[in-house]
Amino acid sequence: MIMYILLPFFYLIFNLFKILYSRRNKQCCILDYQCFKPSEDQKLSTDLSGDIIMRNKHLGLEEYKFLLKAIVSSGIGEQTYAPKVIFEGRESCPTLNDSISEMDDFFNTAIGKVLARSNVSPSDIDVLVVNVSMFSGTPSLSARIINRYKMREDIKVYNLTGMGCSASLISIDLVQNIFKTQNDLYALVVTSESLSPNWYVGYDRSMILSNCLFRVGGCAILLSNKVVSSPLAMLKLKCLVRTHHGARDEAYGCCFQKEDNEGSVGFYLSKTLPKAATHAFVDNLKVACPKILPIRELLRFSISTLARKWLGWGSSKSGGSRTILNFKTGVDHFCLHTGGKAVIDGIGHSLNLSEDDLEPARMTLHRFGNTSASSLWYVLGYMEAKKRLKKGEKVLMITFGAGFKCNSSLWEVVRERNGGGDGDDGNVWNECINGYPPETLANPFMEKYGWVNSEDPATFSAKKRK
Fold first, then answer.
1. Are 409 and 337 in contact (CB under 8 A)?
2. Can you point out the beta strands (E) in 216-344?
3. Coil/strand/helix, residue 288
4. What CATH number is given to the structural domain containing 212?
5. In the chain, how many H helices and how many E strands?
6. Would you say residue 74 lies in a domain?
7. Under a CB-based contact definition with an 8 Å cutoff, are residues 268 and 206 in contact?
8. In this structure, are strands 218-224 and 29-35 parallel, antiparallel, or unpaired?
9. Contact by Cβ (8 Å): 175, 187
10. Long-range contacts for 114-117 (Cβ within 8 Å, ≥24 apart)?
């Protein structure tokens, strides 16, 4: 009789444990990540930047003045890295081997380090996701990694191209969905961009601008949903929201890889880009806010908005300020894409962020430039090196990409990693973090090449020939 009474109870307990175990297996956690730091001989100094511009035969005096203004206001310093083809003076005629070599340098460094530090064998990887937007070889780059590290025959492989600067969060979303259907997996996300075949050598201003922003970089990220790996996790994914405005012609055409009138290939950045980014950002936040902010903040915002609309409280006519959400009620740190100084300023203004909140993104732009989809992880590395990330805190990542896309994700810090100083944690900021933020972010380009503003076209052409 007692057994018949206790049997349903034990059955309930068993299923409860089963559900809890299943949920733990569905988690998407980052065990470790490794950003790529190119060799010192690939640093793009001010002098070399000037040489590259001067040897571009297509550029006249007006284009040079435009570039001078763009570089000075870009927020990029003298420590960023460029592809080797630039230093060899072959940016106008890159080869297939240049592209492959650039990727191999990254693969051999970042992937090897993150696996070794995590004590995970390449044969343990169950899922491999590679995203490099503007270079797709045959066999694929993912196949090249599998061959290099001798991974398993049954590994699940995804090779993404054309996804732009927001590709790393797209890759994370792909991994998360796989984790929801299968347990006890390791996933490796490899994110980078190939600049060797995409350095623009023409004179179209909308395409020259990309040369002032994009730099060499990449990141390898190791994720898992293994229960035994949970104590080792650094970050746990709380939510991820993707927004795609590709159906809108204006948004679709604002970022484009194309040829100019002379046949030179480059990356076109339209004047409508800020508008497209704003629309995608707003639509993304509409979905993300209920997932990342506490109910009390959502209620406060709703009540304030209704009061402004129906009662006129705090309206602009009465001298009041606009009603905005306080993202700091649900987010402790903001990991922003380093698309450029204007992008960082725009997000900061929209979210009402302080200079301390924007510092990691600004410093990453200054030190490493825009490394496309891997930029987020350099920003995260800065936060770690400054020892800002504490257990239990939340990190919001926001990225933009061609298409046009805006993706965001919220992470919880599970384990603090010893960043900064001489710690052997693989952080690319370790050697220079004590010098950041510098006293000034002023670019010396104007000081060295500002003479062009007072030159006439004939004199400028003569100096270029020399």
1. no
2. 218-224, 235-244, 255-259, 265-269, 333-336
3. helix
4. 3.40.47.10
5. 17, 11
6. no
7. yes
8. antiparallel
9. yes
10. 114/32, 114/33, 114/34, 114/188, 114/220, 114/221, 114/222, 114/426, 115/149, 115/188, 115/222, 117/32, 117/34, 117/425, 117/426
- For each of the chain's 466 residues, which pLDDT tens digit applies? 555 454 454 444 544 444 444 445 579 999 999 999 999 999 988 778 777 777 777 777 777 777 777 777 778 888 899 999 999 988 888 999 999 999 999 999 999 999 999 999 999 999 999 999 999 888 999 999 999 999 999 999 999 998 989 999 999 999 999 999 999 999 999 999 999 998 888 888 888 888 888 999 999 999 999 998 888 899 999 999 999 999 999 899 888 888 888 888 888 888 888 888 989 999 999 999 999 999 998 888 888 877 777 766 555 444 455 668 889 999 999 999 998 888 899 999 989 999 999 999 999 999 999 999 999 999 999 999 999 999 999 999 999 999 899 999 999 999 987 654 444 568 999 999 999 998 777 777 767 666 666 666 556 565 555 5
State how beta strands 156-160 and 127-132 pair: parallel
Continuous segment of H or E residues that includes residue 159:
strand 156-160
**Which among 138, 79, 132, 82 is positioned nearest to 107, based on CA atoms?**
132
| Chain mean position to CA 208 | 21
Instruction: State the maximum Cα–Cα separation within the chain, in Å, rounded to a whole number.
Output: 105
- Tell me the torsion sign for CA atoms 7, 13, 15, 18: negative
Q: Is residue 353 in a domain?
A: yes
Q: Which residues are catalytic?
A: 165, 244, 333, 337, 366, 370
Q: How far is CA 171 from CA 70, 175, 221, 257, in A?
A: 32, 6, 10, 21
Provide the domain limits for residue 246: 20-43+79-293+330-435
Distance in angstroms (rounded) separating the CA atoms of residues 369 and 211: 11
Q: What is the model's pTM?
A: 0.88
**Within a domain: residue 106?**
yes
Instruction: With beta carbons less than 8 A apart as the criterion, state whether 111 and 149 touch.
Output: yes
Distance, CA of 109 to CA of 71 (rounded, Å): 30
Residue among 348, 38, 338, 36 nearest 212 (CA): 338
Domain count, the chain: 1
Angle of helix 341-351 relative to helix 273-292, nearest 10 degrees? 40
Residue 212 inside a domain? The answer is yes
Query: What is the rounded distance in angstroms from the CA atom of residue 191 to the CA atom of residue 133?
Result: 9
Which element (helix H / strand E) includes 345? Answer: helix 341-351
H helical segments located in 166-324 = 167-181, 205-208, 249-252, 273-292, 295-306
